[in-house]
Structures are given as C-alpha cells and as structure tokens.
Amino acid sequence: MKINSIKIGVFLVCFSMITSCKDVKKEASAENAKTENFSEKTISDEKIDSVFALGSEKYLKMSEDLEDKKFPKTYIPEKDKFETSNSGWWTSGFYPGTLLYLYEETKEKPLLTEAERILEDLKKEQYNTTTHDLGFMMYCSFGNAYRIDPKPEYEQVLMNSAKSLATRYSDTAKVIRSWDSAPWNKAGDDDLVVIIDNMMNLELLFWATAHSKDSTYYNIAVNHANTTMKNHYREDFSSYHEVIYDEKTGNVKAQITNQGFADESSWSRGQAWGLYGYVVMYRETGDKKYLEQAQHIADFILNNPNLPEDKIPYWDFDADNIPNALRDSSAGAINAAALLELSGYAEGEKASTYFQNAETILKNLMSPEYLAEKDALGGFLLKHAVGNMPNNTEIDVPLSYGDYYFVEALKRYKNQ
User: How many structural domains are present in the chain?
Assistant: First the structure.
C-alpha cells in the first residue's frame, strides 16, 4: 500500500483533533480533582514498589532460563517448563515491554540490557505484513523503548511497523484485516476477518501520524474504530469476537466467536480489548463518541451480574458453568489499565466509579490468590489466566500479556 504525502489542510484538521484531545484530558483531570475522594488512594506506593521489585527479580530469573531468540508465552507448572515462541508470534512484544516497564520503576540495569538483547531479534518483524498484531508486537516493545530512549533506529522500526500494518487495511470494508482467511476462523477466500483484539493495534498508527505528519495512518485507525463500533457491538455494548466481511462489498457476512463460549456470548478478554481500545481512541482524537463508547463498555463490564465480587472476570461472562468457571486474570489486568485512564476522562461519579473498580482489581491481583510467589511460575507474575478455552490452550496459566498490562496498570495507578 502506498502511503501518500499529506495535504496541509488535512494535517491541520488532524493536528487540531490531537491537540484538542490534550485539552480535553487536562479538563477531565481538573474535574476529577474536584470529585470527592476520587484521588484518595488505598494502595500505598510501598506496596506497589514491592510488586515491581518482585517482578524485577522474577523477570531476571526468567531471562536466565530462556533459550536464545525465544519469547515467553506462558509457563506450565506441571511440566516445569516454558511455552515460548519466535519473534513472529503475536505476544512477542510483551516480554521486552514488561522488562522496560520494570526497568523504569526499579532502575535495575540488567532489565534494560535484557530488553535490548531481545529487541535485536524482534526488530525484523517491522516488515511483517502477515499479521495485524504489530501494535502488540512492536508498540508495546519498541514504543516503550523509544519513549525511554528516543533513538532514531527505534523510531524507524516503529514507522516501518506502521507501514506494514497499513498494508492490511481494506478501503472497501474500512477495516484492517486481522486474520487471513482459513477454515479454523470460518472465512472463505473472498472474506475479510476482523477480531475485536485489533482495536489494540491502532495506537501504533496514531503514533505514526504524530511522528511522520502523514494523516493516512490516523485515518485508517479512525475508520477501523468506526466500523468496529458499528458491527462488533450489540445493543448492550457487549462485543462479538469475530466479524467476517465480504471483501468485495464490505458487507457483514457473520458475527461469531473463536475464543469465546458461544457466538452470542461475551468473551471477557474481548470486552477488555474493546474497552482499552476506545479509551485510546478518545485520547488520540478527542472525539467524544469514543469516550461515550468506552464508558458504555465499562458499564457493561462493571454492571454485569456475572462479574465476580473481586472484579476478576470469568473467562466468558456467559460461560455455562458459572460460578465454577475459570477466571481470566489477564482480562482483569487489561480492564484495570483501561479504567484508570478512563477515570481521567470521565466526570463526577463515573470517574470515581472507574477509579475505585480499577483499584479493587489491582488489590485482588496483588493478593496471594493471583500474584505468584518469588520462585513460582518460571518468573511470571500473575496466576489464573485463560488463553483459548475452546481450543484448550493456555488454560489456568500465566500469560505474558497478563503480566504486561498488570505492570502497566500499577504504573498508571502509582502515577495517577
């Protein structure tokens, strides 16, 4: 796909929207400062720092046990072994991303050294046009690396990654293709598959417009989010996992699941991806329809009668064996990170509600029920996550992205 140079008029509109978002954020934060008890935290910095210290120790031990050019996906206690991937797997960016987050908080130089080592292997994925997950893979890794140390080579990796992601955009359907069509995702040769997870990859595109001044990436992200809002969401603001489009017409052909309990159920991590994604959309555009969407999704999650008291969701809100269904700590961690940011944009009672629920989630994830001991789980932090229940993979285990968003949420809470 050719990325055209932007016209000055289009850029001014884009730049104005980005700037307005920053103003909105400041106004929302000022409003929240007036909200009674909103900023009264009940988790001490010392407690959070102890988790960062634990994470530093565990992840350095993990780094010693990993094979060269292998990225940790999970750890199987019964087998006392890691499940790993190469750099091309969708979760590859979370390991270096978590190392960098922990380095920022603990200043343990070996964490940075290990992150830089594994980034050398990951950087070739900047040219990978076979996946939509370059946001996860490259922004969670090189995005954090660039934020900490804005090296030109990191910037180039991120720009090339955005270009690769943009090749998967369909101007007919106005979405970014998630998976290539295959029997396992029930799509035919003329079909285009989009999963709700893809909302998480748009942040890379916003970064690309900010750094290149080319609004192409910005427009792709906005179009994808608008189409997803229209076709992935039900009236109650729960989300389908997978939508199949006719590639030639852009019409919706099917709304189904791949990782949830049923086509009409609400797969918990999918709801979390959508929540986080629309919070990002509001941050980057200042368009209040995205704030409203994020709040509707948050309200669906938090008011769901099947949300447990500790706010750590079952793997699917409609699983058939609730209350005995497995929890998904990764969905809880993603929700916490998203709700903390959303609380800074919402007003009044909603702001307080989102903040307090995020705090509850973090308290429980920091408890022995979910937080692994120093020598447990091969170095991972969070227990009790569920990867793909229907395919019976990564069941009740730690997951690299669960740790990443858990550490991110703790950082946000500490700095809020």
Answer: 1
Choice among 49, 121, 197, 299 that is catalytic: 197
Q: What is the pLDDT along the chain (416 residues), one digit of tens a residue?
A: 434 433 333 333 343 344 333 344 433 333 333 334 355 899 999 999 999 999 999 999 999 999 999 999 999 988 999 999 999 999 999 999 999 999 999 999 999 999 999 999 999 999 999 999 999 999 999 999 999 999 999 999 999 999 999 999 999 999 999 999 999 999 999 999 999 999 999 999 999 999 999 999 999 999 999 999 999 999 999 999 999 999 999 999 999 999 999 999 999 999 999 999 999 999 999 999 999 999 999 999 999 999 999 999 999 999 999 999 999 999 999 999 999 999 999 999 999 999 999 999 999 999 999 999 999 999 999 999 999 999 999 999 999 999 999 999 999 999 98
CATH value at residue 217: 1.50.10.10
Residue 3 lies in a domain: no
- State the residue range of the domain holding 236: 8-415
Say if 1 falls within a structural domain. no
344 is a domain residue = yes
Residue listed under structure tokens 């101007």: 171
How many Cα atoms occupy the beta-carbon half-sphere of 273 within 13 Å? Answer: 26
Give catalytic status of residue 133 as yes or no. Answer: yes
Q: Is residue 331 part of a domain?
A: yes
Q: Which residue in 65, 68, 121, 133 is the catalytic one?
A: 133
